[in-house]
C-alpha cells in the first residue's frame, strides 16, 4: 500500500494529533477522536504505555468488542518497537552486539540498557491516534535510523529463528500488525484496524 510520507512526518511533529484529523486516509482512515503524544525515558514507561492507550480506546464504542485482542497486540508491539528504537536507534546497538550482551548478561541485560539510556539523556516519542476504524501508534527516536530492510533483521534459517534476538519484526508480522517505516528508519507507524486485525501486515517504505 502506498503511504504518503506526510502522514509519518505529521505524526512525528505532532501536527497531525494537534489538528485532530488524519488527512492521510491510507493509514488512519478517519478523524481521530482520541490522540496524544507520550515522551518516554525509561523501560518502565514503555511497559505501562499500553494500559494508557487501551484506556483511550475504551472511549471509542466501536472498539469495545476488540479490546482484549487490541491489548495483546499493543503490549507486544509497543515493547518490540520501543525497545528497537532505544537499542538500535538511540544506543546504536546492532543485532550481533545485542545477542552477545543478552547471552553474557542474561537478566542484567535490561538493567544495562536502562543505564545506557539514562546516561544518553535521550527520549523516544510515541504518538497515538484512535478513531472508530483504526488505532495508529507512531514510535519515533532521535537516532540515526534502523535499517529494517537489512537481511540480518529478517531471520529465515533455523539458526536465526532460534536466536535470542532479531525475531521481533517477524513476530509482529505474524500477528497481523501493519508497519509503515520512513526512509530514515527512525519512525515507524503501527496500524491496527478493526476490520483486519488477523490479516498479514504490509511493511512499506515511504
Plain-language structure description:
It is built from eight helices and six strands. It has a single domain (5-205), classed as 2-Layer Sandwich (Heat Shock Protein 90). A six-stranded mixed β-sheet has the order 1-2-3-5-4-6, with helices on both faces. With 206 residues, it is of the alpha+beta class.
Distance between the termini: 10 Å
Structure classification: alpha+beta
**Number of separate helices:** 8
| Low-confidence runs | 1-5, 18-26, 155-164, 198-206
Assign a percent range to the helix content.
40-55%
Please indicate the percent range of residues in DSSP E strands (runs of 2 or more): 15-25%
- The count of strands amounts to 6
CATH architecture: 2-Layer Sandwich
- CATH topology category name: Heat Shock Protein 90
- Give the integer mean of the pLDDT values: 77
Instruction: Specify the overall morphology.
Output: globular
For the report, how would you describe the main beta sheet?
6 strands, mixed
Query: What's the CATH C level?
Result: Alpha Beta
The run of helices and strands is: HHEHHHHEEHHEEE
Using only C-alpha atoms, the radius of gyration works out to: 16 Å
Q: How many distinct folded domains?
A: 1
Amino acid at each position: 500500500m502506498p503511504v504518503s510520507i506526510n502522514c509519518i512526518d505529521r505524526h512525528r511533529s505532532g501536527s497531525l494529533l494537534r489538528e485532530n484529523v488524519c488527512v492521510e486516509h491510507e493509514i488512519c482512515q478517519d478523524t481521530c477522536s482520541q490522540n496524544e503524544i507520550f515522551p518516554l525515558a525509561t523501560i518502565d514507561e514503555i511497559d505501562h504505555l499500553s494500559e494508557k492507550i487501551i484506556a483511550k480506546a475504551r472511549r471509542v464504542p466501536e472498539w469495545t468488542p476488540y479490546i482484549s485482542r487490541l491489548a495483546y497486540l499493543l503490549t507486544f508491539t509497543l515493547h518490540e518497537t520501543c525497545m528497537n528504537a532505544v537499542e538500535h536507534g538511540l544506543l546504536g546497538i546492532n543485532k550481533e552486539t545485542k545477542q552477545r550482551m543478552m547471552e553474557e548478561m542474561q537478566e542484567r541485560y535490561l538493567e544495562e540498557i536502562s543505564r545506557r539510556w539514562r546516561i544518553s539523556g535521550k527520549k523516544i516519542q510515541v504518538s497515538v491516534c484512535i478513531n472508530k476504524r483504526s488505532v495508529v501508534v507512531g514510535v519515533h527516536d532521535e537516532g540515526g535510523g534502523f535499517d529494517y530492510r537489512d537481511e540480518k533483521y529478517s531471520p529465515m534459517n533455523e539458526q536465526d529463528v532460534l536466536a535470542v534476538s532479531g525475531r521481533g519484526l517477524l513476530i509482529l508480522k505474524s500477528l497481523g500488525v501493519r508497519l509503515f517505516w520512513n526512509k530514515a528508519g527512525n519512525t515507524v507507524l503501527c496500524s491496527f484496524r478493526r476490520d483486519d486485525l488477523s490479516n498479514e501486515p504490509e511493511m512499506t517504505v515511504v
